[in-house]
Amino acid sequence: MRSGGREKQTVRRGVNLVELLLVVIIIGIIASIAIPRASRGSRITAEPELVNCLAILRMAIEEYAADHEGRFPGTNPDRTAGDPGLFADQLTKFTSITGEVSDIRTTTHRFGPYIHRGIPAVPVGARKGSWQVAIDIDSLMPAVDASARAGWIYNPLTGDIIANAEGMDEEGLLYCNY
Question: Is 129 part of a structural domain of the chain?
Fold first, then answer.
């Protein structure tokens, strides 16, 4: 038996241009709010990481000096300034009382290592990710060196180390003054 009426047909209609444009505008507004907050968040997390890296380095430098009759890492046995490689080796390997380096612990090389995972990388600034250390003995306090590729500037005669970074945090404190 047939019904006497017409069959209803469902009409499917696509998304029109105005609806599509409205969705794109809403997504754009959400992105313009979320992206700056996300980038600010990454900078905010990098600043405590800088404080942590400097604490690790400064503690290792102080422990080394305490074990080596007041000599800071990066100094030769005659207490003259060495090179950046010596600084890294003296903190990450075994050393004698005069600072001579060994890959293995011996009765002579009984100190260290003071940092077990290598020199930490600087987490801020243009040299972000660099673990290299530049030696600065020309001034009492190390200064930022824009020409150096190193992430850290260190004075082995004073034991002072800073981040080789030009930027500043939201409170106006320069990264090199942390």
Answer: yes
Residue 70 lies in a domain: yes
113 in any annotated domain: yes
* 85-132 pLDDT, tens digit each: 999 999 999 999 999 999 999 999 999 999 999 999 999 999 999 999
Q: What is the pTM of this model?
A: 0.74
Predicted pLDDT of residue 11: 61
Q: Which residues contact 136 (CB under 8 A, 6 or more apart)?
A: 142, 143, 145, 153, 154, 155
Total domains in the chain come to: 1
CA atoms of 150 and 94, how far apart (whole Å): 24
Identify the bridge partners of residue 135 per DSSP, sorted by sequence position.
154
As a whole number of angstroms, the distance between CA 128 and CA 151 comes to 7
Question: Whole-angstrom Cα distance, residue 72 to residue 156?
Answer: 6
Count of alpha carbons within 13 Å of 166, Cβ hemisphere only? 7
Evaluate if residue 174 carries a pLDDT over 60.
yes
Tell me the residue range of the domain where 59 lies: 48-177
Give the pLDDT band of residue 38 (cuts 50, 70, 90).
low
Asked, for residue 25, whether it belongs to a domain, the answer is: no
